[in-house]
């Protein structure tokens, strides 16, 4: 975990991912994607289930109860990483981010 959270993750791009657009191939996933995120998705996806329709298949992962615990832990890692990298401002980044100050519903 030290490698994925600290030594290989000096910048937000190295931790999470480089920005990419629809239709682009994701060439450089961040360290958090390799492990623990993708590793657990694959490990929890059972090859005995047709099409790996659990954590091993993107379209079916939300049907697996472990999905929520697993992604809550990924969010916890993000919180730990961002707390130790005070110079990172998510609202100034471009790519797959959003502004935490923007309302999700019009007029709310």
Helical amount: 25-40%
Please report which band the strand proportion falls in: under 5%, 5-15%, 15-25%, 25-35%, 35-45% or over 45%.
under 5%
Shape: elongated
What is the average of the pLDDT values? Answer: 68
Series of secondary-structure elements, N-terminal to C-terminal: HHHH
Q: What is the number of domains? A: 1
Poorly predicted runs of 5 or more residues: none
Note the quaternary state here: single chain
C-alpha-based Rg, rounded: 16 Å
Helix-and-strand structural type: mainly alpha
| Topology, number of strands | 0
Q: Summarize the biggest pleated sheet.
A: none
| Count of helical regions | 4
Cα end-to-end separation: 40 Å
Structure description:
This protein has one domain. Helix content is about 40%, strand content about 0%. It contains four helices and no strands.
Core attributes:
single chain, 108 residues, mainly alpha, 4 helices, metal ion binding, Di-copper_centre_dom_sf, oxidoreductase activity, Tyrosinase copper-binding domain-containing protein, metal-binding
How do you describe this structure in short?
This protein has 108 residues and is mainly alpha-helical. It has one domain (2-16, 28-92).
Layout: helices, strands, pairs:
Blueprint: H1 2-7, H2 12-15, H3 31-44, H4 66-84
Domain Tyrosinase copper-binding: 64-75
InterPro entries: Di-copper_centre_dom_sf, Tyrosinase/Hemocyanin, Tyrosinase_Cu-bd
Protein name: Tyrosinase copper-binding domain-containing protein
